[in-house]
Design goal:
Layout lengths: L1 E3 L2 E2 L4 E6 L7 E6 L2 E7 L6 E7 L7 E9 L5 E8 L30 E8 L9 E3 L1 E5 L4 E5 L5 E6 L9 E3 L2 E5 L4 E6 L4 E6 L9 E3 L2 E5 L6 E5 L22 E3 L2 E5 L5 E5 L5 E4 L12 E3 L2 E6 L3 E6 L5 E6 L9 E3 L2 E5 L4 E6 L5 E6 L10 E3 L2 E5 L4 E6 L7 E2 L3 E4 L9 E3 L2 E6 L3 E7 L3 H4 L23 H4 L1
């Protein structure tokens, strides 16, 4: 038995195949104990590769794909790992900060979250964690840390300056910016793969798309594009904005979008770095990172407004008055924009017109922490030393209180990461925190043993996969 890929998110597809079965035999293929696919072997006893869809309800962790022949009873297992990775600051390259595959924590059970662990670093954890089997986060001590999901330090890799940038994971490698003016690439084991020099400190978090690493530079106001495999510049003349780049790029439909301290959003051709457009100026600086959805680019400004620009032309589509500065970056889910404000409130806005749907209230400033949306819940960190959760549907009134809060030991500028039933966030107390249902007891008690062949029963309603050309 083979499954390729051998890991994926709920509702993803994997190609299953097998050999050594009976010839011209019907084969039932199960995901755990559910019969999902009926195949037929060829004259050599082989079947596949055929697409099997992972159930949307599949919990994170180890699962089994099993094939059993209906005539001869020959059977085999293969492991499959379900993960809902959060690969970079914006969740994915468009920056929408919405993990639509999360299926463990939701609005009905988020109140059961409890502290699983707190892992120390030697500096402020301003960086936001990435998750891809292990957890990766930067610290102002200049190290990129890798922790296992039980909080054990796996490795740390040193750069030449504080790390405020958030790491991105792509093709088994890690990419992060440092205040020493370099972008670093590390392997999954923490070995240095390459480093590339930019024009000054890098606070911006990388976005990785189509084999290119994109990042803004706070030293010279430029956007840099590096080859992800070896660090060579992809653009011979990096695109320049009108101000220093604290904003992180989003990539969509061949363009790179980024905010600037001159109050504009810029779009560049992702392949060449050529200017595509610059938005009308807002009334303040933009440290917020853009999110791209449904043909619009959403961003916050310190002028107390959230903005939506046309992704193709840069023209203004709407501006929503918030009455507080916005350094936080937006999250987008199901036609709603979520963004935090300096007054400690999180705003849910209609993505089509900017009209407020509801406002969530924390107990202190929301500065750089950005919302994370997953399974009907939106999470955000605050200077009240807590990560707070609100129902994405609101609370039935205009002002909403959190439905859950998780306390840390310091102010939170890190943005929460939500994946595989975990809420992970950094704190100014020099620690990384994880909150899970019942502190992790649910995950520890899940049975991951392979099902016995005798316990699996075929679904006689299934129709065989057609391989007309192969079986002629």
């Amino acid at each position: 038995m083979k499954a390729s890929p051998a890991a994926g998110q709920p509702s993803a597809a994997t190609n299953v195949s097998g050999s050594g079965f009976g010839t011209n035999e019907a084969i039932d293929v199960y995901f755990d104990t559910t019969d999902l696919l009926l195949d037929v072997t060829d004259d050599s006893g082989n079947f596949g590769a055929d697409s099997l869809k992972v159930p949307a309800s599949a919990a994170p962790g180890t699962h089994w794909i099993t094939a059993i022949g209906r005539r001869d009873g020959i059977a085999a297992h293969v492991l499959f790992t379900v993960r809902t990775n959060w690969a970079e600051h914006g969740f994915e390259q468009r920056g929408r900060r919405n993990n639509a595959s999360e299926n463990v924590i939701g609005a009905t059970n988020v109140t059961g979250l409890d502290l699983a662990w707190a892992a120390p670093t030697n500096g402020n954890v301003f960086s936001s964690p990435a998750y891809a089997g292990n957890i990766f986060v930067g610290s102002t001590d200049g190290n990129l840390y890798a922790f296992t999901t039980n909080g054990t330090l796996k490795w740390k890799a040193t750069t030449g300056g504080p790390i405020l940038s958030s790491p991105a994971v792509a093709s088994g490698n890690l990419y992060v910016g440092s205040n020493d003016g370099k972008v670093y690439a590390f392997t999954a084991n923490g070995a240095l793969k390459w480093s590339a020099v930019a024009g000054g400190p890098i606070v911006s978090s990388p976005a990785v798309a189509n084999g290119i690493v994109y990042v803004g530079c706070a030293g010279d106001g430029k956007v840099y594009a590096f080859n992800a495999s070896n660090g060579t510049p992809a653009w011979s003349a990096p695109a320049a904005t009108g101000g220093l780049n604290y904003s992180s790029p989003a990539v969509a439909k061949g363009n790179v979008y980024i905010g600037s301290l001159d109050g504009r959003v810029y779009a560049f051709n992702a392949a060449t770095g050529a200017s595509v457009w610059a938005s009308p100026a807002t009334g303040g600086i933009i440290e917020s990172s853009p999110a791209v959805s449904s043909g619009r680019v959403f961003v916050g400004s310190s002028d107390q407004r959230a903005y939506a620009f046309n992704a193709a032309s840069g023209s203004l589509e709407w501006a929503a008055i918030i009455q507080s500065g916005l350094l936080s970056s937006p999250a987008i889910a199901n036609g709603t924009v979520y963004i935090g404000a300096l007054n400690g409130e999180i705003f849910a806005l209609n993505a089509g017109n900017g009209v407020p749907r509801w406002v969530g209230v924390t107990n202190d400033t929301i500065k750089y922490s950005s919302p994370a949306v997953a399974n009907g819940v939106v999470y955000i960190g605050s200077y009240d030393k807590a990560v707070s959760a609100f129902a994405t549907a609101g609370c039935g009134t205009q002002l909403c209180s959190p439905i859950w809060t998780g306390l840390t030991g310091g102010a939170i500028d890190s943005s929460p990461t939500v994946a595989d039933g975990m809420v992970i966030v950094g704190s100014a107390d020099q620690s990384l925190y994880m909150f899970t249902p019942d502190g992790g007891d649910v995950a520890r008690h899940r049975d991951i043993r392979a099902p016995s062949y005798a316990s699996l029963h075929p679904d006689m309603r299934l129709k065989p996969v057609r391989h007309d050309m192969r079986r002629q």
